[in-house]
Amino acid sequence: MTADDYTAALQKWRAERDHFMARHYATPLSDDDIVAFDGLRYFSPDPALVFPVDLESKDGQVAIESSSGSVSDYSGAGTVVVPFAAGHVTMQVLHGEEGDLFIPFRDQTCGESTYNGGRYVGVERTDVGFVVDFNKATNPYCAYDPDFSCPLPPPENRLPFAVEAGELDYP
User: Fold this and answer.
1) What is the mean pLDDT of residues 131-140?
2) Are 70 and 149 in contact (CB under 8 A)?
3) Burial level of 128, CB count in 10 A (0-12/13-18/19+)?
4) Calpha distance 131→61 (Å, rounded)
C-alpha cells in the first residue's frame, strides 16, 4: 500500500468513526455534545507508528483497574512486542467485548494532548499476522461520559515516551 493509499484509508476510517459518534444509537456522547459535534481531533498520520506484530497467545484472566476505581477480570489474549523507535515494548493484549483484540495504553501525551486515562488501539488480524496501528488509537468511552467504566492500562502498557498518533483529547 502506498503512503497516499494508507492516508486515504485512514481518513475514511476516521470519517466512519466521526459518523458513529454523531449518529449511532450507542454513541457515548450526550445529546448536547451531539448537537455541537464537529468531528474528533487527531494527530497527523504517521506511517512509522504502524507495526506488524506477532501475538504470543496466552489466554487467561487479567485483573485490570477501571476508571470507576474497581478492579475487574478481563480476558487476556496474550502479548505483542511493539518495536517503537524509543525501544521495544512488550504489551498486554485483551479480548474486547465483540471478539476484537485491543491494547489499553498510556503514554506521555496523556493528560496533555490526549485523555488522561489512556487510549485503546486495536490489534488487527491480517492475512499474514497482526498489525497494531497507533494512528487508530481511540479514547475509551469514559473520556466522553464519566458514567462509563473503562479498563485502564495495566502497568506493562504504560509507556515512558509519547505516542503522537490517534485521537486527541475530546474538547
Assistant:
1) 97
2) yes
3) exposed
4) 23
